[in-house]
């Protein structure tokens, strides 16, 4: 591609509204332009990167036995109503009506559509397993689009769906796709982790996220410092061992704690360690009220609470609800003399080890001291209900937990029969009996992957693309395009390198050398070939973008030199 004929509108200044490096650099280097909040045009350079990522995705998905198709982005409401998600998905679902007042949604994902399609076409177990995928634009009306392509309202996604007649078959495909994802993100050059995660609004239980390590990531990963264990902080199980004090139990007593609502306040006011405080929070779990107890230095993990009750919705009770149900405001509530008919009490395992603790007295400006679980209150159920902390033992028994930030670029789910049962999607088994399909779901944020690569690969001068996904492999730059010898050699090398199979961008613009070099660094093509004063000697300068290393190379050795560089990147 000749640069004079392409569309690469580079910028010298950092756009004021671009908060993170990937957003800044993709705008400055002429890869994207914003057309509305969270909506972007992909310019020619970004389009080439997306094509290369998609090629990697297709190769690995096809190798895993998946088959590509394309489904409509415009989906009728009836399908979403069948699954129940028309009502539960939330305001992120972009809804609209056609001229006949029929309801539609712009697809954020395609579980309903693919289930409907397979339901109508696959009738026998003999056609299973089946894995179908597509690469398509998706739509989610994010409340706060941010970070450029990392959180947009319109984005490119690869979504795949598998259908099975047994859990064993699902497990096998799940592992194939999980390994395919490892290959995809490895080939893209990313530093990532596959972490145990929560399925959220998608449904299902077994799921892994693929997280690109980055300080600007919105998710926290808990990982072992001595093994390959990694999990989203919401899902990391706690296996800490607690010790119970052998001190004598004190009598229960109520003390005044005026305006002391938080654990920090109460701990300081009563001069007691936070580990002896019982934090009591009232949750609404579907239609049931549950009082959750955790130790004062711990935080309630609402995802674990949701999974414990296999609930659809878990939310903290409002101040008004707390007053109505318990009779006092949050900050002073506790488990003692709680109405067990109205409220179920569940506690994290650490609570059972507290001796002579402190908890709210269900009376404003008052707390109980000398609190001992089981003697002073009963717990319906003990469970792992807190967030894991740095320094906790790793759940696999190897090392201790550390935290890192991550950008989610992929997610794999075992959906089970969540959608097939809701939508009456069945096949006939070997006995001729109708059975619901057992399903898996597998997504990759293709446009988000592009941005995540830039977050990990850049320096102060611009982007540094890994060779496998770079928009071009080689950037041919004549220092002075008006010089006949330089122009002639540059033209020739452009043709020869292109015929040799290299992806080449030829900067044939009538610009100063400094402008060309600055743009080249900004765009981030792996290998730069500069034709300068030694053009008459057929010697060029080859510079590696990643290392900054420059070497003079005879034209006769240029192809081999470039090939070796690209193989080693």
State the helix count: 14
Q: Measure the end-to-end span.
A: 23 Å
* Integer tally of domains: 3
CATH architecture of the largest domain: 2-Layer Sandwich
Catalogue the unreliable spans. Answer: none
* CATH level 4 superfamily of the largest domain: Bira Bifunctional Protein, Domain 2
From the 3D structure, determine the CATH topology of the largest domain. Answer: BirA Bifunctional Protein, domain 2
The level of helicity is 25-40%
Structural class: alpha+beta
Provide the β-strand percentage band.
25-35%
Q: Kindly state the mean pLDDT as a whole number?
A: 95
Radius of gyration (Å) = 29 Å
Q: Could you say which overall geometry the principal axes of the C-alpha atoms support?
A: globular
CATH first level of the largest domain: which class? Answer: Alpha Beta
Question: What is this entry, summarized?
Answer:
GO terms for molecular function: proline-tRNA ligase activity. The protein is of the alpha+beta class and 569 residues long.
How does this structure look, described?
This protein is α+β, with helices and mostly antiparallel strands and 569 residues long. It has three domains: 18-237 and 403-454, Bira Bifunctional Protein, Domain 2 (BirA Bifunctional Protein, domain 2), CATH 3.30.930.10; 253-383, YbaK/aminoacyl-tRNA synthetase-associated domain (YbaK protein, Alpha-Beta Complex); 472-568, Anticodon-binding domain (Rossmann fold, 3-Layer(aba) Sandwich), CATH 3.40.50.800. Helix content is 26%, strand content 29%. The protein has 14 helices and 31 strands. The strands form eight sheets. Strands 3, 7, 8, 9, 10, 11, 12, 21 and 24 form a nine-stranded mixed beta sheet that branches. It catalyses: tRNA(Pro) + L-proline + ATP = L-prolyl-tRNA(Pro) + AMP + diphosphate. Its main location: cytoplasm. This is Proline--tRNA ligase.
């Amino acid at each position: 591609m000749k640069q004079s004929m392409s569309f690469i509108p580079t910028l010298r200044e950092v756009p004021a509204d671009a908060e993170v490096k990937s957003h800044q650099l993709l705008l400055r280097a002429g890869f994207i332009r914003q057309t509305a909040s969270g909506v972007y045009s992909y310019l020619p350079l970004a389009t080439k990167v997306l094509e290369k990522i998609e090629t990697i995705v297709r190769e690995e998905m096809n190798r895993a036995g998946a088959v590509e198709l394309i489904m409509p982005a415009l989906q009728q409401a009836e399908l979403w109503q069948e699954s129940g998600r028309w009502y539960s998905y939330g305001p992120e679902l972009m809804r609209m009506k056609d001229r006949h007042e029929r309801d539609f949604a712009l697809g954020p994902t395609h579980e309903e559509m693919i289930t409907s399609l397979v339901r109508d076409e696959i009738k026998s177990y003999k056609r299973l397993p089946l894995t179908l995928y597509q690469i398509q634009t998706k739509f989610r009306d994010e409340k706060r689009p941010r970070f450029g392509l990392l959180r947009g309202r319109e984005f490119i996604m690869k979504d795949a769906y598998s259908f099975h007649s047994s859990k064993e078959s699902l497990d096998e495909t799940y592992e194939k796709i999980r390994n395919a994802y490892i290959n995809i993100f490895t080939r893209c050059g990313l530093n990532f982790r596959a972490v145990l995660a929560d399925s959220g609004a998608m449904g299902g239980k077994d799921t892994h996220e693929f997280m690109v390590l980055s300080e600007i990531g919105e998710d926290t990963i808990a990982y072992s410092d001595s093994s390959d264990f990694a999990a989203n902080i919401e899902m990391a199980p706690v296996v800490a061992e607690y010790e119970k004090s052998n001190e004598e139990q004190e009598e229960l007593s109520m003390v005044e704690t005026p305006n002391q609502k938080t654990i920090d306040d109460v701990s300081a006011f009563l001069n007691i360690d936070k580990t002896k405080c019982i934090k009591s929070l009232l949750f609404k779990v579907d239609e049931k009220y549950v009082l959750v107890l955790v130790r004062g230095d711990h935080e309630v993990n609402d995802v674990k609470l949701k999974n414990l009750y296999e609930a659809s919705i878990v939310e903290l009770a409002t101040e008004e609800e707390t007053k109505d149900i318990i009779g006092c405001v949050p900050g002073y509530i506790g488990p003692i003399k709680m109405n067990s008919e109205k409220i179920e009490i569940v506690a994290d395992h650490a609570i059972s080890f507290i001796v002579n603790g402190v908890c709210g007295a269900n009376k404003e400006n008052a707390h109980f001291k000398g609190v001992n679980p089981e003697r002073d209150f009963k717990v319906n159920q003990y469970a792992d209900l807190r967030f894991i902390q740095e320094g906790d033992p790793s759940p696999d028994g190897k090392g201790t937990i550390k935290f890192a930030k991550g950008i989610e670029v992929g997610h794999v789910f075992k959906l089970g029969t969540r959608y097939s049962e809701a939508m009456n999607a069945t096949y006939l088994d070997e006995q001729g009996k109708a059975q619901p399909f057992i399903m898996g779901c597998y997504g990759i944020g293709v446009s988000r992957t592009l941005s995540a690569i830039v977050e990990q690969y850049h320096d102060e001068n611009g982007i540094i693309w890994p060779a496998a996904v770079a928009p071009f492999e080689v950037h041919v730059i004549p220092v002075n395009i008006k010089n006949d010898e330089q122009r002639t050699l540059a033209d020739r090398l452009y043709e020869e390198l292109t015929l040799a199979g290299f992806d080449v961008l030829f900067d044939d613009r009538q610009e100063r050398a400094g402008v060309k070099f600055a743009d080249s660094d900004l765009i981030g093509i792996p290998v730069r070939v500069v034709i300068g004063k030694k053009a008459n000697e057929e010697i060029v300068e080859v510079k590696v973008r990643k290392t900054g290393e420059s070497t003079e190379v005879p034209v006769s050795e240029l192809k081999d030199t470039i090939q070796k560089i690209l193989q080693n990147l």
